[in-house]
Hints:
The protein has four domains: 4-120; 156-264, PAS domain (Beta-Lactamase); 277-428, Reverse transcriptase/Diguanylate cyclase domain (Alpha-Beta Plaits), CATH 3.30.70.270; 443-703, TIM Barrel (Alpha-Beta Barrel). It is elongated. By secondary structure, it is an alpha/beta fold. Helix 1 (4-17) crosses helix 2. The protein starts with a helix and ends with a helix. 32% of the residues are buried. It contains 28 helices and 21 strands. The strands form four sheets. The chain has an eight-stranded mixed barrel with strand order 13-14-16-17-18-19-20-21, surrounded by four helices. The chain has a five-stranded antiparallel sheet with strand order 2-1-5-4-3, sandwiched between helices. The structure holds ligand C2E and magnesium ion (2 copies).
Amino acid sequence: MTTAHSVGRFATRWAASLKGAVAPAMTRAELEDFLRDLTEQLAEAMRSTPCRPELGRAVGKALIDAHYRDASVLNRTLALLDDGFVAELGYEDSADVASRISALHGAVAEGFAIALRDTVLAEQETTQRAALAAARAAEERRRASEARFQAVFAGAAVGIGVVDLSGAVLEVNDAMAGMLGRTTDDIKGRTIGDVIGPENIGHAYAEFQKLLAGDIDQFRLETAHLRPDGRVANVDLSMTAVRNRTGTPDFFIGVAVDVTERRRLQNRLWHESRHDALTGLPNRTLFFERLEAAEQPLGLCYLDLDGFKNINDSLGHDAGDYVLRAVANRLRKAVEPDGCTIARLAGDEFVVLIERCGSPDRVAREAEKMLAVFGRPIEFDGEQLSVTGSIGVVHSALVGRDPGRLMRAADVTLYQAKANGSGRWERYDPARGEQELTRHSLATAMPAALAHNEFLLHYQPLVSLDDSSVRGFEALVRWDHPRLGRVSPGQFIPVAEETGNINALGQWVLEQGCLQARRWFDEFGIDDLYVSVNVAATQLRQPTFVADVLGTLDQVGLPAMCLQLELTESAVAGDTHGALVALRELAAAGVRLAIDDFGTGYSNLAHLGRLPVHQLKIDRSLLASSRKGEVVDPAHDKIVAATISLAHSLGLDVLAEGVETTPQADRLRLLQCDGAQGMLFGGPVPVSEAAEVLACQTRRADSA
Ligand code: C2E
Ligand code: MG
Ligand code: MG
């Protein structure tokens, strides 16, 4: 008899037998409830006549639906039906029961199998559907991104091209095609070499190799592409490798920008910055670039028009410009074009640079041709203007290869050509040239040297022969030249005088000397200590000289008596009216005046007596002895003696320069010379040492 109790017991056994099977999410109680339902159905099938196999099938299906899909579940269930089911539910051992159990067996197995198949099929179908949907979505996205790419590709303002690994062009956009002056189809058949051009292909090939090897991600190059219409397109191309997941490139993408306009503008600017607007010739900048890069040996012809200023001044600048243009045009025709650069350096200065100039004669020939252009007058506004020029000719064999030196040599030689009478060419003369070159380089470097503080002053004591005490210092200028080292005033003062730089330099010395005197005045309180400053003849002739000196004293706050100016005899001789007025004004203001290097010039004491001068400095050449062991040259000794007594009679102090020995000093004392300067008492020294001398002297005076 089936009772609820027996059904429950069987369900419990059934549940226990399923233990270990891959279990659905059911508690043991839920599982027993579930199996009790199934046991009821099985019992129902046992009771029915005829036996209802659909109930058995339903049980099989229910197991599948409850996610019992493992084959072991079916096996264990069927085994229980054979064994425990009959016993637990109390069926009698009859042929009918046996046949019913057997039918149930089949039905449960069938229901289980069918349900399992249906579920798997259903699941497969869902999976497939999902896969299909996913695939469709991916396709959609790919299409969208492709469309976006196509839009960018086609509509881009920059040229884009796709190139395969063999260098064949797969795809280009309209912009790229337009840039290269071809159709997209025309380019698609070509290789990248056709686009890049033969002169760049070597370099590009090497870069492609690096891209392939993964050494670089991108490279750029600028190509000049000759279009079918004959125009040249300057293209700035950058190539990138597109790599797959393994990192190897699948293809290359090139992005190109048309830089033709930019190039053209750059070229124009370059041309304008390197050519002279008036004549169209290369200008100074381009000339020096070419000179730096020129192939040796070199020849230079440096041309300067004679008296060009007159044309400008008398006929006006239009005439001047016209002449310059005419000369430039004639030079263009005259000068051998091969290996020569004609440039206009400035104003009326032209230069011809000859590269690979085998012999100095070659330069001479060009110079002849250049002079020949002045053979015919230049016609301007109905007037026949005869213009001539002078040329300095140099060859690197004589001067060396340094461009700066070559130019200075050319300049020096041009100057000589002018000095020898214009309208001629002159060859560089090494003997004269060296000296001139140094002078020349000193002259040109001087203005900048002042600005760069390359000058300094040394101070040499001026002593009293009575007691050897220091009464003043002579300020002596030195030049620390960055290349030549310390240059002595004997070398650069004459150059400064010639070039007029002496005025600026002299003013600088004056200011520095006065400032120093003022500092010593403040520090040592010696009322009558003076600084003696050398003044060149040209300075004295400056109309502002007196005002400059008095202004400087005023600015520095130095008493006039603390400043002495040294002038040479020649500076105050000759046309002396202007100089005389200046000296009188200075003397009236209290400035001390000295005649420097007396004995080297006119030595006209009668004349000097009329000047408001305080001191006579006897040149050291009068102290030099011609014979060894002699104190002084007997002839010089007489002159010195006479000079001292004459000077005294005119009311002048006398100071002897270049006193080097004690016997010299003794002799001078005997001759009643007032002061001395020279190695015996101390040479020119830097300001700190001069201060030391003063400090010593002050200490001695204080202790006395
Ligand atoms: P100077 O005015 O006659 O100056 C005296 C020169 O004699 C100095 O040469 C000095 O160093 C040198 N000297 C001094 N004692 C002795 C000695 O015992 N033996 C010998 N053999 N020489 C001695 P330095 O400094 O070379 O100056 C040379 C000349 O340059 C000066 O001759 C002066 O004419 C000129 N100079 C120097 N500084 C200036 C300046 O600031 N302006 C101008 N216009 N000329 C200057
Ligand atoms: Mg002097
Ligand atoms: Mg002197």
